[in-house]
Specification:
Blueprint lengths: L3 E5 L3 E7 L3 H11 L8 E4 L2 E4 L3 E5 L5 E4 L2 E4 L5 H14 L5 E7 L6 E4 L11 E7 L2 E7 L5 E7 L3 E7 L1 H4 E5 L9 E7 L4
Antiparallel strand pairs: 1-2, 2-13, 3-4, 5-8, 6-7, 8-15, 9-14, 10-13, 10-15, 11-12, 11-14
Helix pairs in contact: 1-2
GO molecular function: dioxygenase activity
InterPro entries: AlkB-like, AlkB-like_sf, ALKBH3, Oxoglu/Fe-dep_dioxygenase_dom
Pfam families: 2OG-FeII_Oxy_2 (PF13532)
Length: 193
């Protein structure tokens, strides 16, 4: 697989490419849609609010995904998700064992700037595959808070964030009211609990 570097340094990188098996992606979307949690609650700065997206975590090896002091329990991998996980692991010579799925129903759904730097994640980095509507994937420098890059994440696009990328940058999907179609991201990680 050919990946194009977008951000690169001695210690970290963000690379993009295209996933070729669209039939497998369609099967995964079909398998998970009814399993996602609709706008789950989250505590932010001491307040409980609803996440502006639907979320699910799938793994046969991890009990769940812990973020923002909450635990999202694992659901079993479906046949298509297992095949997708195996494909990604083969592509990146990795041993990811969990898939976090986010469904953005339209441009009003979003995720704020954040880093995937939870202690339960291994140092392998994170790989994401996008399906559906094209959405902006915004990268910011953690120190300056300035936008480093806006990447138009299209259907079938792969993003790999490796090395110390999470230490130096944040990423998010901002609100884009003009977007009327859904987008789903499959994010691959290696969980250590």
């Amino acid at each position: 697989m050919n990946l194009t570097p977008v951000i690169s340094s001695d210690t970290s990188s963000l690379n993009i490419g295209d996933f070729k098996d669209m039939i497998l992606l369609d099967e995964c979307v079909s398998d998970i849609k009814q399993s996602l949690i609709h706008r789950p609650e989250i505590r932010v700065f001491g307040k409980t609010c609803h996440q502006p997206r639907d979320v699910g975590f799938f793994s046969d090896k991890s009990v769940g995904y812990k973020y923002s002091r909450q635990m999202m329990r694992s659901q079993p991998l479906t046949g298509s998700l297992t095949k997708l996980l195996d494909t990604i692991n083969n592509m990146f010579s990795s041993d990811f064992n969990g898939i976090l799925v986010n469904l953005y129903r339209d441009g009003n759904d979003s995720i704020g700037d954040h880093s995937d730097d939870e202690n339960i994640l291994s140092s392998q980095g994170v790989v994401a595959v996008s399906t559906g509507a094209t959405r902006k994937f915004r990268i910011r420098d953690k120190q300056t808070r300035k936008i480093v890059k806006d990447i138009a994440m299209h259907h079938g696009m792969i993003v790999q964030m490796s090395g110390e990328f999470q230490k130096h940058y944040t990423h998010g999907i901002p609100v884009e009211k003009r977007v009327k179609e859904p987008r789903i991201s499959f994010t691959f990680r290696h969980h250590t609990e």
